[in-house]
């Protein structure tokens, strides 16, 4: 079992395995301050298990913290000195004060401070990929321009965008090079625009990196207690778990689709990596496709 079992993709000039890891769930039983802070040793063991199984694409953010745990600090403690092949992706735009309250979306001149905050926490001099996490409609030029300046200075390797509609992706690509798009995308949350973004990324050679592919409608709270019968039936037929079916369906959407399942549980990391070798039939996929919008 290896994170490359579903293949690899070139992200910002580096080869990453298509099964990656999302760090938002390292900090507690639910994201942000919604749950109970995690056990630090277990969280560190989770990140190390991911890398041991070949994960070399890790998604994080400075605003991923609970009362007593910080995703960036845990990644730093678990992995530093970092493996040569690791691609660390972070995101800027949103911010939280020390008590966890959300701040206003960053002005362009505040993005440098957010980049530097990530550098300090991760213990690096350079961020491989930074996503501008957009929170709604509005021009992107000044924000992406500020980040592109930091690419020029060597603080950032490559840029991506997150939470974008198709027309925002088009706008972003007209401003600077975009290497990845991180959007919400799951069996249920899949609008025509969401698919249009996924397809446009494939045509342009841009990585599409979905979030909430397992949590679905549970969003930041985590996986809902009830799973769709179709997912359960496909899982049963393959001797797989429902999250593995969700990941396999997501990976089957295109070679440019990279998954970043989030977990604070080393056993779940292993199951998520194993999902990379689960191949669904056309019939399975058609049945799962029909869950869009449910
Ligand atoms: N750009 C953005 O705006 C944005 C927004 C949200 C998230 N993200 C990124 O995307 C990543 C993925 O999103 P996410 O973590 O919110 O949601 P997710 O990966 O869709 O689902 C995470 C939930 O699934 C559970 N889970 C994970 N693996 C499992 C398994 N094998 N079996 C059973 N349950 C499992 C986790 O609980 P356990 O901890 O118990 O395993 C957690 O409750 C995040 O970690 C973050 O890096 C980005």
Number of helices, where a helix is a run of at least 4 consecutive DSSP H or I residues: 10
The domain count comes to 1
The CATH class: Alpha Beta
Strand content: 15-25%
The stretches of 5 or more residues where confidence is low (pLDDT under 50) are: none
The CATH topology name reads TIM Barrel
CA-based gyration radius: 18 Å
Q: Tell me the total number of β-strands.
A: 9
CA-based shape? globular
- Strand-pairing-aware structural class: alpha/beta
Describe the structure.
- With 294 residues, the protein is α/β, with parallel strands linked by helices.
- It has one domain (8-289): TIM Barrel, CATH 3.20.20.
- It is built from 10 helices and 9 strands.
- The protein has a 7-stranded parallel β-sheet, with helices on one face. A two-stranded antiparallel ribbon has the order 1-2.
- The structure holds NADP nicotinamide-adenine-dinucleotide phosphate (NAP).
Task: Offer a concise description of the structure.
The protein has ten helices and nine strands.
Secondary-structure map:
Layout (H helix, E strand, L loop, with lengths): L7 E4 L2 E4 L3 E2 L17 H13 L4 E3 L11 H9 L7 E6 L18 H12 L4 E7 L7 H13 L2 E7 L3 H10 L2 E7 L7 H13 L2 E5 L17 H10 L3 H10 L14 H9 L7 H8 L5
Parallel strand pairs: 3-4, 4-5, 5-6, 6-7, 7-8, 8-9
Antiparallel strand pairs: 1-2
Helix pairs in contact: 1-2, 1-9, 7-8
Bound molecules: NADP nicotinamide-adenine-dinucleotide phosphate.
């Amino acid at each position: 079992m290896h994170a490359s079992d579903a293949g690899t993709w070139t992200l910002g000039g580096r080869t990453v395995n298509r099964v990656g890891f999302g760090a938002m769930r390292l900090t507690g039983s639910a994201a942000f301050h919604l749950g109970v802070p995690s056990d630090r040793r277990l969280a560190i063991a989770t990140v190390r298990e991911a890398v041991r199984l070949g994960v070399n694409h890790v998604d994080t953010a400075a605003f991923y913290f609970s009362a007593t745990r910080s995703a960036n600090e845990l990644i730093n403690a678990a992995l530093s000195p970092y493996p040569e092949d690791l691609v660390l992706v972070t995101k800027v735009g949103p911010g939280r004060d020390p008590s966890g309250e959300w701040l206003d979306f960053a002005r362009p001149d505040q993005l440098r401070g957010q980049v530097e905050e990530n550098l300090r926490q991760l213990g690096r001099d350079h961020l491989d990929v930074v996503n501008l996490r957009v929170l709604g409609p509005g021009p992107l030029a000044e924000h992406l321009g500020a980040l592109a300046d930091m690419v020029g200075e060597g603080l950032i390797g490559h840029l991506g965008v997150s939470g974008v509609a198709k027309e925002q992706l088009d706008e972003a690509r007209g401003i600077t090079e975009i290497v990845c798009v991180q959007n919400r995308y799951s069996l249920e949350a899949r609008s025509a625009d969401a698919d249009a973004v996924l397809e446009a990324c494939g045509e342009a050679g841009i990585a599409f990196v979905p979030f909430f592919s397992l949590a679905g409608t549970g969003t930041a709270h985590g996986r809902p207690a009830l799973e769709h019968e179709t997912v359960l039936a496909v899982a049963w037929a393959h001797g797989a778990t429902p999250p593995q079916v969700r990941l396999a369906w997501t990976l089957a959407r295109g070679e440019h689709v990279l998954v970043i399942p989030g977990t604070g549980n080393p056993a779940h990391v292993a199951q998520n990596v194993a999902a990379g070798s689960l191949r669904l039939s056309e019939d399975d996929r058609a049945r799962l496709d029909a869950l869009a919008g449910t």
